[in-house]
Amino acid sequence: VSVNFLFAVKTCGSNLQGPGGTFTSPNFPFQYDSNAQCVWVITAINTNKVSLIFWFFLKKNLKKPNPSLHLHPPTLNQPNKNLIVSMSNQMWLHLQTDESVGSIGFKVNYKEIEKESCGDPGTPLYGIREGDGFSNRDVLRFECQFGFELIGEKSIICQENNQWSANIPICIFPCLSNFTAPMGTVLSPDYPEGYGNNLNCIWTIISDPGSRIHLSFNDFDLESQFDFLAVKDGDSVDSPIIGTFTGAEVPSHLTSNGHILRLEFQADHSMSGRGFNITYNSE
Ligand SMILES: [Ca+2]
């Protein structure tokens, strides 16, 4: 008797049909198993005039983009894109995980749409959409709410291949301030209640020429791998990086080489941590 351990993988997935529904990775929203192989096949009921749409909520504690999510056909292999429209009446989803610790997985809503439609791409968080047609040659225009900055395309068009010409833009909240006092505190927005989403904050600490600036991290808690604080030695975006920090590990003290430090904080479109509390002094 021989036992083949090569096939000691868990299998999952299913065959699904329209007009719509939801499925998730195994155990969602808890961590999925390692060494799993899942295949979902979604087939539209009306084979003549239907496409499928997916919304992904890929989880966020991945240390690296692995386990990978393979989408078929391969040209649609864009796991971060929220909306994917199939080119035929069928779509495959293949999840393969390795032995490393998994993330909490994903959830997919699918539904059939008309053959000439690109599907509803949604509206950006903190944004406004003009236009509500999703058919070939329809155009959607986007603006951001007051105080937010638009990153990406201001308008997108539904192309003949049933794909939007670009992803919808994002609206970010810019926060800028300068610190010139010899000592002070830098707090992330709404610390410690959570800093929210779509942020791009830049704080500049300027001390007397010839002095240096010391940073002490009193508290630090960011969404790991998706929200970042970068500390740069100087006042420009191109200044050398002293450190880049994410997650919940409190960084140790930092000292500038010059008399100016630039703190850049970026938060993505979902999930937040407490934020950070940093004190500085110069000498
Ligand atoms: Ca985030």
Secondary structure blueprint with pairings:
Blueprint: E1 10-12, E2 15-17, E3 20-24, E4 36-43, E5 50-56, E6 68-72, E7 84-85, E8 90-96, E9 107-114, E10 127-130, E11 139-144, E12 149-151, E13 155-157, E14 170-179, E15 183-187, E16 199-206, E17 213-221, E18 228-232, E19 241-245, E20 254-255, E21 260-267, E22 275-282
Parallel strand pairs: 1-4, 2-4, 14-16
Antiparallel strand pairs: 3-9, 4-8, 5-7, 5-9, 6-8, 10-11, 11-13, 12-14, 15-22, 16-21, 17-20, 17-22, 18-19, 18-21
This protein binds calcium ion (CA).
The CATH superfamily of the largest domain is Spermadhesin, CUB domain
- Indicate the mean pLDDT: 81
As a percent range, the share of helical residues equals: under 10%
Report the sheet-strand fraction: 35-45%
The SSE string, one letter per element, is: EEEEEEEEEEEEEEEEEEEEEE
Give the count of helical stretches: 0
Overall structural domain count: 3
Identify the overall geometry: elongated
Q: Could you list the spans in which at least 5 consecutive residues all have pLDDT below 50?
A: 1-8, 57-81
C-alpha-based Rg, rounded: 23 Å
Main beta sheet strand tally, sense and closure = 6 strands, mixed
Strand order of the largest sheet: 12-14-16-21-18-19
CATH fold-type name of the largest domain: Jelly Rolls
- The CATH architecture category of the largest domain equals Sandwich
- The CA-CA distance between the termini, in Å, is 76 Å
Please give the number of β-strands: 22
- Classification by helices and strands: mainly beta
What is the C-level CATH assignment of the largest domain? Mainly Beta
- Ligands and ions found: calcium ion
Keywords: Disulfide bond, Repeat, Sushi
Pfam family, one: Sushi
InterPro entries: CUB_dom, Sperma_CUB_dom_sf, Sushi/SCR/CCP_sf, Sushi_SCR_CCP_dom
Domain Sushi: 116-173
